[in-house]
Amino acid sequence: MNAAPLTDFSRLCVHTITTKPWPLAEAVKHYAAAGVKGITVWRQALEGLDPAAAGRMIREQGLTVVSLCRGGFFTAATAAGRREAVSDNLRCIELAAAVGAPHIVLVCGAVPGQPLAESRRQIAEGIAAIAPAAAAAGVRLAIEPLHPIYAADRSAINTISQARAICRQIASPWVGLALDVYHIWWDDALEQEIAACGREKSLFAFHVCDWKLTMLDPLNDRGLMGEGCIPLRQIRGWVEAAGFAGFHEVEIFSNLYWAGDQHAFLARIQEAYLGSV
Ligand code: ZN
C-alpha cells in the first residue's frame, strides 16, 4: 500500500552533497530558513572546519544531524591497503562523534577484477574491525547496498540481502543498513527485504531521489523525486510498515542541478518531497 502523502517538512533531511555548491554554513542557513529539519553532512563539507563547532552551529539553527557520509571502501588488493581503510574508518567514527552524527553511511568498496565474493569477505572483515570502536563512540554503521551498476569499483554489496548477511555475521546492534531508493528499487524481493530489516531492527536510514529514464551519467545524473520511475510512495509505505520513523534524506548527485541556482533547486526539492515522496 502506498504511504499517505507527506504534509510538512518535519522529517525532511537534505544531504550537503545535494546542494554541493553551498559551503556547510550556507547550506545550514538556507535549509533552516526553508524549514528543512535534518541535514546529512558529507565529509568534504567538514574539510577545514572544527567538527564539534560545526555540529553546534547546525543544532543552533534548529537542524538535526541525521548522518555522516561516508565511510567504507574496505576492499583493497593488499593487506596494507585494507589496514589503511580501517584506519580511515576509525577517523570517520571520531568525526561522526564530534559532529554529533548518530551514524555513518558505509559505501563498502570493490576492486576491479577482484572476485565479488572476496570483496564481500574483506568488507565483512573491515566492518567487524571497526564495530567495537563504533559502539564505544555511540556511532552506528549503516551499510548502504549500491545498485549492481557499481559492483565493479564502488561496492560489492549490491542487495539488501547481502548487507543483511554481513549484519547477521557481525551481530552488533551498531551495524545496520541505509536504504537508498536509487540502489534498491529494482529488487524483486524489495518488500520482503525491507520487512526483514524491520524485524532485525537494522533499518537505520532512508535516502530518496529518482532514477531517470534517460541518464547522462550513472553517478552524477540522479533525478529529483518524481522525475523518474521509482515508486517512491510504495517504497516509503514498506519502509514505514517496517517501523522506520526517521528522516527522509534527499540525496541527489546531479551535474545539472549543481550548475543551477541552489535556492531554486531547494524550493523544487521541497515541492517534489510533498508531491512525490
Ligand atoms: Zn544514499
Instruction: State the shape.
Output: globular
Can you say what the CATH homologous superfamily is? Divalent-metal-dependent TIM barrel enzymes
Number of helices: 10
Task: Please give the largest β-sheet.
Answer: 8 strands, parallel, barrel
Helical content, roughly? 40-55%
CATH topology, what is it called? TIM Barrel
β-strand number? 8
The tally of domains stands at: 1
**Gyration radius over CA:** 18 Å
Give the spatial strand order of the biggest sheet.
Answer: 1-2-3-4-5-6-7-8
Strand and helix order? EHEHEHEHEHEHHEHEHH
Structure, explained:
This protein has 277 residues and is α/β, with parallel strands linked by helices. The protein starts with 11 loop residues before the first strand and ends with a helix. The chain is globular. It has one domain (12-276): TIM Barrel. An eight-stranded parallel β-barrel has the order 1-2-3-4-5-6-7-8, surrounded by seven helices. The protein has helices spanning 24-34, 51-60, 79-99, 116-137, 160-170, 181-184, 190-199, 232-241, 255-258, 262-276; strands at 12-15, 38-42, 64-72, 103-107, 140-143, 175-180, 203-208, 248-250. Helix 2 crosses helix 3 (79-99), helix 3 (79-99) runs parallel beside helix 4 and helix 7 runs parallel beside helix 8. Residues 144, 180, 207, 251 line the site of zinc ion (ZN). Zinc ion (ZN) binds next to loops.
Write the layout of secondary structure elements.
Elements: E1 12-15, H1 24-34, E2 38-42, H2 51-60, E3 64-72, H3 79-99, E4 103-107, H4 116-137, E5 140-143, H5 160-170, E6 175-180, H6 181-184, H7 190-199, E7 203-208, H8 232-241, E8 248-250, H9 255-258, H10 262-276
Parallel strand pairs: 1-2, 1-8, 2-3, 3-4, 4-5, 5-6, 6-7, 7-8
Helix pairs in contact: 2-3, 3-4, 7-8
